[in-house]
């Protein structure tokens, strides 16, 4: 009896053992398929990053191109083989998974090897929680705000094409060009955040805070979906949160193929390197002739600086008056007369169409559209700027020539923010979207974006950015400020005699019966605060004659 029972049990084991092995194989198969799919997902990410790097045409000896291409071909092969395995598993045949088990195990082993090789191709990928791309004013103010909000060492990196820590860019067209060596502004004197009355953030400050300054590094490729940046040297940077602070680049006459525009001693002023070259040329061409092309911010400020450097200065611009986007004809007339009294010649209503150069390739003359030729030892061009958004084309929504953001500077891509010149953002005061190219907005937008990032992480509430447009300039002994919007009817007050020892005058802009903007030359700090306040409050105006009579005292009432 016992022997018969053992015989039955033994027979049952013999019969069901293969089935049990099949069931175990199925369990192993399912586990291996999960591992396979996870590895494949990781492999795809590595593959996309490598393709991104190759598409940027970055080799420089860091990647063996032929070997990498072979690797990419093999990755495609193994992906096809895995697709076949996945297709067969869907046939739902009882033994199919068991028969495929060994193949899946082999593919898991093969995928792991491919991943190791792919990561070796990539080398070291630097990863940060936060990356700021662009190293101008906005980057410095954002770094300070990150520190204020709470930042762990190693979490933040600033990647900048320039070779120095963030600095106050407006200095380049002002104090940097001062002819007195003892009075001329030089780094580290004007590192951020001295422009707004804050402490100077020297390179050691970033080191102490654990913020990595990655200088002299140009980002040439961006894949926001992969949260990846690639530099011109082939370095790869990964981020969780990105702040785009790339700013603007100058419009160059060579962009329009202007004849001779590549001659030596034709300058543009945007970065420290540009200013250094201009300063060197000023020393070499002492008491020479300078032609300034453009009647905007850069044109006016550099023309004043060149005259202070004892150059014979001529300004050329196509508009009927200087700073036409902001100044009224009456305001512009004062500054043009003031400049002429300083010995600066102004030619309006024409443009440069070419340049003459000597045998050394140095500019000697500026050819105007009206036929005149101006002698020149130095030419400085200030005809505008373009926001640096090309890296993000097709990846982010755009508006008004910039990257579209909300009131917290969030872009259309989660985890990506844009600030400063590149951001097209809503101005609450006017219920419209604008892009503002000015240092004040660069500072404030950067700080607000960081506050928004931190508020999002902690769940705290934050008010939307509520910006009052602000512009200013300091030239010769003059200093003006503007707040608000220059739309509607303008009303000038006080005397704009350019021969006055201490000129003080201004203008209000009135729209729909309310003051929406104000300009003041020669104001005290208190008076400038008053015009800022009245521009935000938008008080009603019942009588324009009375407003003109009151002038600055009207703003002081609020």
Automatic annotation (TrEMBL):
One GO MF term: monodehydroascorbate reductase (NADH) activity
InterPro entries per the UniProt record, alphabetical: FAD-oxidoreductase/Apoptosis, FAD/NAD-bd_sf, FAD/NAD-binding_dom, FAD/NAD-linked_Rdtase_dimer_sf, MDHAR3-like_C
Domain annotation FAD/NAD(P)-binding: ranges: 128-446
Please list the reactions this protein catalyses.
2 monodehydro-L-ascorbate radical + NADH + H(+) = 2 L-ascorbate + NAD(+)
Q: What enzyme class is recorded for this protein? A: oxidoreductase
**Domain of life assignment:** Eukaryota
Stored Pfam families: MDHAR3-like_C, Pyr_redox_2
Needed cofactors: FAD
Q: The Monodehydroascorbate reductase 3-like C-terminal domain covers which part of the protein?
A: 468-555
Per the entry, what this protein does is: Catalyzes the conversion of monodehydroascorbate to ascorbate, oxidizing NADH in the process.
What is the protein name for this chain?
A: monodehydroascorbate reductase (NADH)
